[in-house]
C-alpha cells in the first residue's frame, strides 16, 4: 500500500457554525492539506497541549495511557487513515512490530500521535481525493462534502437553499442520497 506521511499543523474553530473545529494535517512538503472535523471537546484537548501556558498534562489520561503503552510494553505505533465513510475518516492504530491494528476515531488518533510522537499516514489515493492545496494563511477552508457528518450536510443544504446556491444544494443532496443508498 502506498501511503503519505502527514504532519499536524493545528486546529481551528469553525466560526458561526455548530460546536465543531477542524484539524489541519499536511503532507511533509506542505503542498496538500487534509481537514478533519472534530468536536469542541477535542479542540479543548488539543488546546491544553498546544498552549504556551498549558497546564501540565502528564497526569491526564491520554498521556498516562500513552506512557503505559509505549514505556511498559516497548511498543511503537503509527496511525493509518484508510477511508472516509459517511463523513467519518476511518483510522487505525497500527502496532509497527506485529501489524495488529485497532480502529480509532480520527481526532483521538491524531491526539494520540501528537502525545506519543507517532507518525500519521494516509493511503495515497485517499489523500489525493480528499486533500486540497495547502495555504498557510487561508481566508477560508475547503472541506470535501464526503467528510461532513449527516447533520453538517443537512445544515449546509439548508444554508445553500436559503442563499439560493442551487448548484451546491444539488451536490449536497446527491451526497445525502448516496449515503441513504448504502444503508
Question: Notable features of this structure?
Answer:
183 residues, alpha+beta, eight-stranded mixed beta sheet, single chain, globular
Helix and strand arrangement:
Layout: E1 3-13, E2 20-27, E3 32-39, H1 40-50, H2 61-73, E4 77-85, E5 88-95, E6 101-105, H3 106-116, E7 120-123, H4 124-130, E8 132-133, H5 150-162, H6 166-182
Helix pairs in contact: 1-3, 2-3, 5-6
Protein model, in words:
This protein has 183 residues and is an alpha+beta fold. It has helices spanning 40-50, 61-73, 106-116, 124-130, 150-162, 166-182; strands spanning 3-13, 20-27, 32-39, 77-85, 88-95, 101-105, 120-123, 132-133. The chain has an eight-stranded mixed sheet with strand order 6-5-4-7-1-2-3-8. α2 (61-73) packs across α3 (106-116) and α5 (150-162) packs antiparallel against α6 (166-182). The protein is globular.
Helix content: 25-40%
Task: Characterize the main sheet.
Answer: 8 strands, mixed
Strands of the widest sheet, in order across it, are 6-5-4-7-1-2-3-8
> Helix count, per DSSP?
6
- Termini distance? 28 Å
- Average pLDDT reading: 86
Q: What structural class is derived from the secondary structure elements?
A: alpha+beta
Strand content: 25-35%
Rg from Cα: 18 Å
Report the count of strand segments: 8
Order of helices and strands: EEEHHEEEHEHEHH
- Note poorly predicted spans: none
What coarse outline follows from CA principal-axis ratios?
globular
Amino acid at each position: 500500500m502506498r501511503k503519505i506521511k502527514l504532519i499536524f499543523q493545528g486546529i481551528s474553530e469553525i466560526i458561526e457554525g455548530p460546536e465543531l473545529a477542524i484539524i489541519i494535517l499536511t503532507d511533509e512538503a506542505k503542498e496538500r492539506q487534509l481537514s478533519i472535523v472534530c468536536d469542541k471537546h477535542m479542540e479543548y484537548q488539543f488546546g491544553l497541549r498546544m498552549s504556551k501556558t498549558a497546564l501540565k498534562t502528564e497526569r491526564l489520561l491520554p498521556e498516562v495511557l500513552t506512557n503505559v503503552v509505549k514505556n511498559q510494553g516497548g511498543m511503537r505505533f503509527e496511525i493509518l487513515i484508510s477511508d472516509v465513510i459517511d463523513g467519518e475518516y476511518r483510522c487505525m492504530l497500527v502496532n509497527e512490530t506485529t501489524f495488529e491494528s485497532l480502529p480509532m476515531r480520527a481526532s483521538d488518533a491524531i491526539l494520540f500521535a501528537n502525545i506519543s510522537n507517532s507518525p500519521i499516514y494516509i493511503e495515497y489515493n485517499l489523500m489525493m481525493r480528499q486533500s486540497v492545496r495547502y495555504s498557510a494563511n487561508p481566508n477560508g477552508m475547503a472541506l470535501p462534502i464526503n467528510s461532513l457528518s449527516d447533520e453538517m450536510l443537512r445544515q449546509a443544504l439548508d444554508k445553500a437553499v436559503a442563499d439560493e446556491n442551487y448548484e451546491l444544494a444539488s451536490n449536497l443532496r446527491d451526497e445525502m442520497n448516496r449515503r441513504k443508498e448504502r444503508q
